[in-house]
């Protein structure tokens, strides 16, 4: 026979508040428009599902922060001022960190057809300065009453300091300075595969949102990768094909968002949404 029921406190399980899905346009949606250009960013803003403009950053010789995925002028997308293309053997002559912006902006990155993205709209476009890109986006944001978020990647690598980019602290300081001047820090996350700038951000600018980019099978073990980083980032951003439930559960327990890259089919997008990711990064924002 059961004894009398005494009063007790019922402990509810901790629940992570589910954020609105963060739909990010990779390099401004390079499947549709020339990557990392102002034209791409403005065009994708017309897609009301897109919440974040994702882009990559490099530094010029005269310390301008520019929007480019590659530390060199990419032969796949670059046209010279005379209309000719950069040849593969010329690559090391065209390191962005070794040229002033006045020289860099003379190259075009919107006219040449990218072999991997043949339906891109082609138009004349130069590599933009980050501050100019932000100005253009914010003008359109004001006109449309629709503020965009930014996810900017610091493209750096150990062994390339002083050659393809400044050291991690200087790189971070240059980027943060632009974001502060444009008053968009509260709408911006800074991501990197390189642990060093992320650690600088954590130590020097702890209020800035950080996104830890990870690739390959190793990213499936989020706990191990985050331990290597040494602190809890705002966002864990793994290569999409390695996302699993254990990863998401671990990150959500630590209040870390999971935003995979770069998923380019509707089926895979839907599959990741079912796994309860917090956002997605794609070259084809028209799939959202």
Protein model, in words:
With 288 residues, the protein is α/β, with parallel strands linked by helices. It has one domain (22-74, 128-287): TIM Barrel (Alpha-Beta Barrel), CATH 3.20.20.190. The protein has helices at 38-44, 101-104, 130-144, 168-181, 195-204, 222-229, 245-253, 266-274, and strands spanning 22-25, 52-59, 65-67, 149-154, 188-192, 209-214, 235-238, 257-258, 279-282. Strand 1, helix 1 (38-44) and strand 2 form a beta-alpha-beta unit. Helix 4 packs across helix 5. Mean pLDDT is 93; it is low at 1-17.
List keywords for this structure.
alpha/beta, 9-stranded mixed β-sheet, 9 strands, about 25% helix, globular, disordered N terminus
Q: Tally the beta strands.
A: 9
Strand fraction band? 5-15%
Write the CATH fold name. TIM Barrel
Mean pLDDT: 93
Give the CATH superfamily.
Phosphatidylinositol (PI) phosphodiesterase
- In CATH terms, what is the architecture? Alpha-Beta Barrel
How much helix is in the residues? 25-40%
């Amino acid at each position: 026979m059961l004894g009398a029921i005494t009063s007790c406190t019922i402990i509810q399980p901790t629940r992570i508040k589910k954020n609105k899905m963060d739909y990010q346009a990779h390099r401004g949606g390079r499947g549709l428009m020339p990557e990392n250009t102002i034209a791409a960013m403005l065009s994708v803003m017309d897609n009301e599902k897109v919440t974040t403009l994702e882009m990559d950053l490099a530094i010029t010789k005269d310390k301008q922060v520019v929007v480019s995925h590659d530390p060199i002028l990419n032969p796949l997308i670059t046209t010279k001022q005379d209309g000719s293309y950069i040849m593969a053997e010329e690559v090391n002559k065209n390191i962005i960190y070794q040229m002033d912006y006045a020289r860099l902006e003379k190259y075009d990155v919107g006219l040449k057809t990218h072999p991997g993205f043949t339906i891109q709209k082609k138009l004349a476009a130069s590599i933009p300065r980050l501050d100019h890109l932000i100005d253009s986006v914010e003008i359109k944001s004001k006109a449309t009453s629709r503020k965009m978020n930014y996810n900017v990647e610091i493209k750096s690598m150990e062994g390339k300091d002083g050659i393809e980019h400044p050291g991690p602290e200087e790189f971070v300081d240059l980027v943060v300075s632009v974001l502060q001047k444009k008053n968009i820090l509260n709408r911006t996350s800074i991501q990197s595969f390189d642990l060093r700038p992320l650690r600088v951000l954590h130590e020097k600018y702890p209020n800035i949102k950080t996104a830890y980019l990870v690739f390959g099978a190793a990213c499936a073990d989020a706990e191990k990768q985050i331990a290597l980083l040494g602190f809890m980032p705002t966002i864990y951003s793994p290569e999409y094909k390695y996302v699993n439930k254990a990863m998401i559960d671990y990150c959500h327990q630590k209040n870390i968002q999971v935003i995979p890259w770069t998923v380019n089919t509707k089926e895979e997008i839907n599959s990741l949404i079912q796994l309860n990711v917090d956002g997605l990064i794609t070259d084809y924002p028209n799939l959202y």
